[in-house]
Amino acid sequence: MTKKRVGKGTMSVMIALLLLGLTVSGQAAPAVKSINYITNPAGMGNYTVAVAQGQLISKRSGGLQVIVQPSQGPRVIPYLLESGDGQLGILSSSGTNWAYVGVHEYDRPYKFLRVLQAGSDNYFGIVSLQKNGIKSIPELKGKRVNYSVTSLLTEFVMETELEAYGLNRDKDISALKTENNTASIDHLGQGRSDAAACGLGGSKMAEVSAKSKIIVLPFAPEKLPFVQKKLAVFATVTPSNLSGVDPGIPAIATPNLLITRADLTDDIAYLVVKTLIENYNELKTINAVMADWKPEVAVRELTVPYHPGAIKYYKEKGLWSAKMDQLQQQLLGK
Hints:
The chain has twelve helices and ten strands. It is of the alpha/beta class and 334 residues long. Strand 5, helix 5 and strand 6 form a beta-alpha-beta unit. 48% of the residues are buried.
């Protein structure tokens, strides 16, 4: 069934090629007129990233139009790519790996997933309102903490951060479910919860924090090994360009990835990456968070293979190494 759905996407691209008679060699126009970019709900950090990237590609690619489509949350993005509803998506490296190998929230491997570009770090944590008087994770005992049911990574972050401080989600807090991260922050702002486990940053967090200051509950770096037993994350501090929260607060992060389907044509994949990398200076002026999508972090050692169209561009620009070639072959089972 998977192959059949993906195959339809391939057929659509082939038909577009025949009708338009276009290629993307050099600066030529793209093979299809538009592609859909699936992202998080409006108001979240990755939605902001998708909008900025979509605007730039539509403006600078020479004809390719990107339509940004918000979804319920990270969990559904691989499904929507598989169905053909989208050709691009943004997902954390952890979420992409789970889908690719078929673990946790995915009951089978989504081997059609491919990486186009690695980019900014996705910051996670538990937040509260300053007026609630909660300053640390241990102080969450007996409190209401909400989390998104459409982001398993957010749920895991909540569970493991609590456990690292000796708290159990089922015994020590009242865990409340919301439909997505935007709703979690909304509920916090409305007083329907005392804290929220969520991705950090984005316009919704900035909006709520402007009315009632949001604070990130610090997560001590020395407790990171406990979290790393379950999640591929690393210790960080909140940066100055993260909307709605103070900088310099200890937190955890995982890289964001611009992903696609294996059947996206090499020409389109090449054009998307080329446009984003070569217009980086313009991209970072669209939104401050885009400064973290630097060309030098586009290629990382991941657990999901890159798209060959992207690899072609990276090799031309000296960003792809022999070590990455070896890793790519291993991931593809060659």
